[in-house]
């Protein structure tokens, strides 16, 4: 009989080589995507908000998982406000890989990667970002090694608040890939708008997710990724929880350090995830575009599209379900409300017990995803202005329902 021995030394966990039997390989890496000074910034609807300097670098961070089947899954966290299918399609073609999932942190202090926040996208910069992601994928794939995959969960407490509803996802979920010499990667999944700096900030920064990954890497080693969750409607930082009462870098650091501390406190409670292979189901969701602002932005090419992403007034976006045994990841292409996310989770759990993670802003940013029955509520006036239309919530729910049915 073999025994699995895990030692926690200085926050790192080590597993004997004989216990890593090769059923799963993984690799992780990161690459800087810091834009030039002067680039138009995203996250707030300012006419011409340009970066005056760089406070800290932005990154794309990649985790590749490969079970014995040889089928690969690439999850990329990127320090941008959103990422369009226009860019994803080009990356998938050049990388010759379909199972690529690019999840934006929804950073409000980075470049305008969508084209809707002011003067438009810097297409030269976005071309460089696409090329760097392809380079990142290739570099990560060259350095896969046998690992064990672990899942953990922590309660965020009062880190976040929903200004529009009592519904709130307080879970901080995390995945850890551990190799012979220690942690290869830690993926942290939590729902909260990264806007600790506020609309007056003109310095490029990754906001609090940047502090999360910095602290996680310092404590546990490897590459850390931050992936946002069900932050729609409006989930943001709870101002009464932190010493830094004003928006700024002190608040961003305090939030990031607290999220990392919550992970650290539950790190030794992770459980091993065992599976022979993972199942990936995808569906294209056709949603009527009824938002005049978005219509004009597409017509004037501020938002670039392909015929497969937009045609005849219909936005085509993608939802996905990734299942590792009793662990499920739902890839949502925008800012879904916690209430609607909860309904989707409940629907999925009818088929059995499972841990479910919501990865928001995955492979698209279609704006707010509101329950169709709540779309016209007065409290959602701001969210309606940044949504495709009232059908969005219903069609996203129906697409997930079709994917999870036996």
Key terms:
8 helices; globular; 2 domains; five-stranded mixed beta sheet; 406 residues
List the helices and strands and how they pair.
Layout (H helix, E strand, L loop, with lengths): L5 E4 L2 E4 L8 E9 L20 E2 L4 E9 L5 E6 L6 H11 L4 E5 L18 H19 L3 E2 L1 E8 L4 E3 L8 E9 L2 E9 L12 E2 L2 H14 L2 E6 L6 E3 L11 H18 L4 E3 L5 E10 L3 H8 L10 E2 L2 E11 L2 E5 L3 E2 L1 H12 L5 E5 L8 E2 L11 H4 L6 H14 L2
Helix pairs in contact: 1-2, 3-4, 6-8
Gap between N and C termini? 37 Å
Separate helix tally: 8
Q: What is the helix fraction of residues, given as a range?
A: 10-25%
- pLDDT < 50 stretches: 1-18
Shape: globular
Which strand order spans the largest sheet, edge to edge or round the barrel? 7-6-5-3-8
Counting copies of identical and different chains, the oligomeric state is: single chain
> What's the number of domains?
2
Q: What would you report as the Rg, rounded to the nearest angstrom?
A: 20 Å
Structure summary:
The chain is α+β, with helices and mostly antiparallel strands and 406 residues long. The protein has 8 helices and 23 strands.
Verbal overview:
This protein has 406 residues and is α+β, with helices and mostly antiparallel strands. The chain folds into 2 domains: 14-273, no CATH class; 279-404, no CATH class. It has 8 helices and 23 strands. Strands 7-6-5-3-8 form a 5-stranded mixed beta sheet, covered by helices on one side. Strands 14-12-11-9-16 form a 5-stranded mixed beta sheet.
């Amino acid at each position: 009989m073999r025994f699995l021995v895990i030692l926690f030394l200085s926050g790192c966990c080590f597993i004997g080589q004989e216990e890593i039997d090769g059923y799963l390989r993984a690799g992780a890496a990161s690459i800087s995507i810091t834009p030039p000074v002067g680039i138009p910034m995203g996250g707030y609807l300012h006419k011409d908000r340009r970066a005056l300097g760089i406070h800290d670098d932005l990154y794309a961070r990649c985790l590749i998982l490969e079970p014995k089947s040889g089928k690969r899954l690439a999850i990329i966290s990127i320090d941008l406000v959103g990422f369009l299918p226009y860019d994803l399609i080009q990356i998938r073609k050049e990388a010759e890989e379909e199972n690529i999932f690019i999840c934006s942190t929804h950073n409000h202090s980075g470049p305008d990667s969508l084209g809707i926040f002011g003067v438009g996208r810097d297409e030269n910069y976005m071309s460089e970002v696409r090329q760097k992601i392809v380079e990142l994928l290739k570099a990560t794939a060259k350095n896969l090694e046998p690992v064990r995959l672990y899942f953990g969960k922590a309660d965020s407490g009062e880190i976040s608040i929903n200004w529009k509803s009592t519904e709130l996802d307080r879970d901080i979920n995390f995945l850890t890939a551990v190799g012979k010499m220690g942690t290869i990667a830690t993926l942290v999944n939590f729902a909260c708008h990264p806007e600790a700096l506020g609309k007056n900030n003109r310095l490029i920064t990754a906001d609090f997710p940047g502090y999360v990954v910095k602290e996680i890497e310092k404590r546990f080693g490897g590459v850390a990724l931050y992936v946002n969750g069900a932050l729609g409607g409006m989930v943001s930082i709870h101002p009464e929880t932190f010493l830094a009462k004003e928006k700024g870098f002190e608040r961003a650091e305090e939030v990031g350090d607290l999220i990392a501390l919550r992970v650290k406190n539950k790190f030794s409670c992770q459980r091993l995830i065992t599976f022979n292979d993972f199942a990936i189901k995808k569906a294209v969701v056709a949603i009527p575009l009824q938002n005049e602002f978005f219509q004009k932005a597409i017509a004037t090419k501020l938002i670039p599209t392909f015929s497969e992403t937009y045609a005849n007034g219909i936005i085509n976006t993608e939802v996905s379900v990734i299942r590792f045994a009793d662990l499920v990841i739902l890839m949502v292409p925008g800012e879904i409300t916690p209430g609607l996310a909860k309904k989707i989770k409940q629907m999925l759990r009818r088929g059995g017990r499972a841990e479910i993670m919501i990865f928001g802003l995955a492979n698209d940013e279609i704006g707010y995803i509101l329950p169709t029955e709540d779309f016209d509520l007065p409290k959602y006036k701001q969210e309606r202005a940044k949504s495709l239309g009232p059908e969005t919530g219903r069609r996203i729910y129906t697409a997930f329902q079709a994917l999870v049915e036996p």
